[in-house]
Protein 1
Amino acid sequence: MTSLTIKRPDDWHLHLRDGDALRAVLPFTAARFARAIVMPNLKPPVTNSEQALAYRRRILDALPAGMKFEPLMTLYLTDNTYPTEVDRAKASGCVHGFKLYPAGATTNSDSGVTDIRRIEPVLARMSELGMILQVHGEVTDPNVDVFDREARFIDGVLAQTVERFGELRIVFEHITTRAAAQFVLNARPGVAATITPQHLLMNRNALFTGGIRPHHYCLPVLKSESDRRALLEVVASGNPRFFLGTDSAPHARHTKENACGCAGIFSSHAGIELYAEAFEAVGALQRLEGFASEFGADFYGLPQNEARITLVKEAWDVPAHYPFGSDELVPLSAGERISWRLKN
Ligand code: DOR
Ligand code: ZN
């Protein structure tokens, strides 16, 4: 296959940041995706609908003239989120879910939820109003091995939440393990997962190839080859519970190339092309459209996009870095060749 035309995709998990950083990264997403679920982990976090609407406006204002893009907003759950916020979010028409960050699990998650029992009234209201819960699924106990944190979260938190709130629609975000893929496959209806390009393309060896590789560090951290294979199997099967969420998470170069480097991989510069590489590698390019352009919209209860994009098999070299305000941004696959290109 040398050309692939699909419905315009959406990114169901994206970090756009704010200010100069937002202006630097947004055009990459808007060139490929019609909509994106925008993560609320700003500093300070987006915890109420008023803030989400203001952030949405800043995103739209940052969009270059002539580009179309619809930000789908989310709110950041804290121990102090009240059920009435769910009603306000629903009424806003612009908020499409609430993000659960276990406190301390990842970048800007300090204000997250310390114990899921604290937000049970909020989850109950979300379930009643059909609002989607997006979950960063890792336990935060520093005694738990970093590679086991997702699996422990399933057994210790997620399984019970899924059963206790039997109608709540839940997206298990950026799954990284065979255990997570299995969990989602076997879960009740209303449970889905997003998968990033890096977790389809790399295993944890990529963190240490020839030395420590900070630009391959994200959370949840890359896992084993067996885990990666399990993710490829579910996406290649065309199961609609699994859909595209890049988790593209830009950080200035110096904050990653640091004695204590930040977690996050920027992938929006090739946010659909990288998936094409992964799907092609397992002979599943015909499954890309469902994963990228159909299953997520269906899960979120939104219409699929009518526009189309075309990918052509024409290699291009990813730049070593992009401008990022007064800083630099090192993208996934920097300095490497990608074989699929977005046709303008
Ligand atoms: O690697 C990550 N980066 N994982 C997350 O959960 C957050 C993200 C970020 O905001 O940088
Ligand atoms: Zn994320």
Protein 2
Amino acid sequence: MISDFSQTLVIQEVSPRDGLQIEPIWVETVDKIALIDELSLAGFSRIEAGSFVSPKAVPALRDSEHVFQGITRQPGVVYVALVPNLKGAQRALAARADELNLVMSASQTHNLANLRMSCEGSFLAFGEVVESVRGTAVGLNATVATAFGCPFEGKIDADRVLGIVDGYLELGMHGITLADTTGMANPLQVERLVRRVLQRVPAARLTLHFHNTRGLGLCNVLAAFEAGARRFDASLGGLGGCPFAPGASGNICTEDLVNLCDEMGIHTGIELPLLLRLSRRLPALLGHELPGQVAKAGTPQHLYPVPQYVAGL
Ligand code: COA
Ligand code: ZN
């Protein structure tokens, strides 16, 4: 049972990064910029706008420099860049990212598949990144990917995740994200892990990143919310997925999450009609249907004309 509706749930929009990184077709830089500019007017306080990884690893986002340079930054919106190493951090700083999101997997195997380095190698790289931003205003967030399960190793021990969180905090990370990279989490597991992590990290600095791979995305949001989490990643249309995780599919869908919150009286500050308009344009941009459901069904306020035969009954 959700017992406290009186809170604000903060949504970080990740479609420009997690969403587009797995798309097989090339999305023009101007279209990425236009998407981010429109998302910037929808009420988000945080948008993950691109990633500074190897262009060979993720060709779809190889233009992130140009994207960051081309967007119209709205006051109050933090534009986040995903980075895997020092080179990525230097590129992101040059492109004036407001915050770096450093990513490493709890699973050694997925880290090797995704970043071609061990978890120990990632930690060393993150130490260099921390040094490189010292004295700047750039924020640091660190993600534990595959925190709830790995497509190669299976279940991930919660103590291992907590150990990584502690390591991140010791390195000086401000924000922490727990990511369910391939949608393996269940609500009970989420509630338990979130409660334990919140003993170390305040809710204002903890983000949950769920994928809806097995249909449990919004259930996991509610479980995390009930456990005290207040910040969530989500992606317009339910786009998204890690190209280096077999079976990966979309993030939880932003407009479906906003609809859930609107219906339950949880404040997000996001304008749902604007999101729906943006989401309904994605199939034309990407050449396929999207998993988001509210964009297809409309909000519950959308009513249909009564069939004529009913009037005659
Ligand atoms: N941005 C751009 N280029 C980078 C880079 C970065 N952040 N980091 C390394 N490179 C370049 C190197 O300069 C080198 O270029 P060269 O071949 O022209 O000399 C090349 O990539 C190989 O460098 P190396 O350090 O050996 O990298 P690698 O091949 O071991 O790959 C990563 C390591 C981390 C760069 C790569 O695996 C990666 O970018 N992964 C990201 C995957 C991802 O984004 N997943 C989804 C999000 S979680
Ligand atoms: Zn993801």
Protein 3
Amino acid sequence: MVNWTKNKKSVKLKFHFEKEKVIQSMKDEQLIISVSLGKQKNLTSKKIKNAVAKGINIIKSLNLYEIDIELGEILADKYFEVIVGAELGTYKYKGYHQKSSSKAVNISIIDDGSIDEEEWERKKNIVKGMLLTKNWTNMPGNKLTPEILSKKIKYTLTNVGCEVEILDKARIEKLKMNLINAIGNSSANEQKLVVVRYTGDPSSPKKIGLVGKGITVDTGGYNLKTAEGLKYTKDDMAGAATVVGIMHVIARNKLKINVTAIMPLCENRLSNSSLIPGDVITSMNGKTVEILNVDAEGRLILADAITYAVRNEKVDEIIDLATLTGSIVSTFGNVYTGIFSNNAKLAKEISVAAKEMGEKIWRLPLDDEYKEKLVSQVADIQNIGGPTAGAIIGATFIEHFVEKIPWVHLDIAGTDFYPGKLSEYETGGATGAMVPTLYKYIETKVWQ
Ligand code: BES
Ligand code: MN
Ligand code: ZN
């Protein structure tokens, strides 16, 4: 945790391109720690984040908590990376320990006066959005049921000026969102559909739609997961948590744009009222769906949420985020987020935003040949294809419900969460990935 302050501190942290990894010195009675960024020509935003995190953690290990970070020429325009490195490098999910131990560091930034204060605040808000996403995604399933999550969303986003509506099981049924209820009814912890409206430009009818998968626990239902697979399903609501993080930044930064967020929140449990493979459900869209694998539940709840976004909220484009497939984890590990789109321009704009924010995404294809895998003997469509191309098939299923609106699907199953520490600033657990990218994409759209 970081408190950003203004006064001069006891330790100075700076950066260099020399070979020597860490250089320690004293000047005017101030301890100076200088951390290497590696070779100048190989500098990446990840290296900056890691060097910042490393420097702060070295200082913390000396039991010192008052730090001046000198941006110098090297990092003068890289302060977003500095904030990310500092906040994520010192992040620890507080959890449910009886005694908590982590101590905040107080950091002030020394620059040459060129930092625009408002831009600095906007960047800080992006990282705050990431922290919100991380904290919520890290919460255990029993502490964050659909009902609790829906209330947290309402409280948090109403506070920053959004309109929040929570639809309960009966409303969902009335709207014929039978896929959402088919999954939600597997649990006594009731499903919710949360709709958030941010109106930053009342003069425009245009709206961006964000849709996030909010499975608070995923047992796989009758397609029960293995003991290993069951351990970390609390992150299956990361799509929804990421959407909340993005909405929080948009609202805090008062973007002149309209965004509507839709989050279906359900548990996917094994119970007397769970679906059984072979069951057929009629979606809100009208298409009938044969459910051949109950563990492919994310695409089902997203399908109805997207129909609702298109027909009831009348959004002009859709960006959905979901921890959708193990297949994307096999493809990219925890390095790239997989993206899929029916619109080259939109996919390109989001890729540009990702590059700018130092996040890695890669577009995978959609193709009519994959649609054949979803042809069902008894219904309009089935919810799984064959044993191969799982992430693409998942995206293809969702595509059936977007009604030709420009759409991007981000499969974040590999990048939203990992159990162990990956690097100095990637300390394990939820990551907040894609909050910066999608915020940036939306911010860029305002100026167009
Ligand atoms: N939430 C999972 C995807 C997942 C798996 C995320 C592993 C992170 C790690 C999703 O609901 C799921 O179970 N997908 C199945 C789909 C399959 C049955 C077609 C999968 O990927 O195994
Ligand atoms: Mn599943
Ligand atoms: Zn799932």
Protein 4
Amino acid sequence: MPCKFCKTKPVITLTNSKINLCRSCFIRYFERKAFKTIRQYKLLGKKDHVVVAISGGKDSLSVLNLLIKLANKKMDIKITALLIDEGIKNYRNKSIENAKKFCKEKSIKLEIASYRDNFGKTLDQMKRKNKDTIACSMCGVFRRSLLNKKARELKATKLATGHNLDDEAQSILMNQLRHNIALSSRLGPITGVKRDPRFIPRIKPFYFLTEKEVATYAFLHNLISDFNECTYCEESYRFEIRDLLNNLEQKHPGTKHAIVASFIDILPLLKNRFKDDEIKSCKQCGEPCSSEICNVCQITQKI
Ligand code: SF4
Ligand code: ZN
Ligand code: ZN
């Protein structure tokens, strides 16, 4: 079947609607959908300084590419890229090179912050000393905290990430299965329950775009040099949930969309439920957190 709109050769069949699109119709569809999310959820405003969290992979370089287009065309926003180097041998070094090359080509300032400089050890070193600890459980906490801290130091007004619909469906399901609804209240196209200057709001322009769509967009823009996955990803809970959802999606197309759409319906109720929760300051490092000691300090003590 040719492209639905211009009858030329298609590059993708959209998962839900089964519509075929050619290269240029797909790029138009993709960017319009991301811009609509930005408009509808007020992700960006005039003069925003957007720090884009990039890893050098397809999702984050695609979001950076899209925001650069937006800044060049119609929006008065400033963009800085921020890369977190966890210190994972044979994985992160390759994507750092990819990120550097892309930012240089686009004349975007790139800041790099590493676990070694900020937490004293690389993730590989942490994992070697704590073989029974799941790497992602340390890594996710450190990355979230470091991104927020560095974005704040850079005086960002927004922190953009390349999270897509698949990622969000996984997070929703993981929180549900772990009875962690408070964490879910902080999800959504723009994160946070209430404004606090210590937290930079995170925005997700690809919230309603699938992983397949983002991968296609990245491929069509030559943003993927080679595909490699993190050494530790197979030991993570998210990996299991990803497989589970992919299997469900194959048998019952539309499952991931349904999870995210249902979640968006109840998100205002969740935000309301947790709106009075106090944001404290960690007694050890001073970073904002929900308990006396933040997760970073708790993990650092344990390991
Ligand atoms: Fe970190 Fe886990 Fe992601 Fe690897 S897969 S970068 S360990 S969160
Ligand atoms: Zn077309
Ligand atoms: Zn702390």
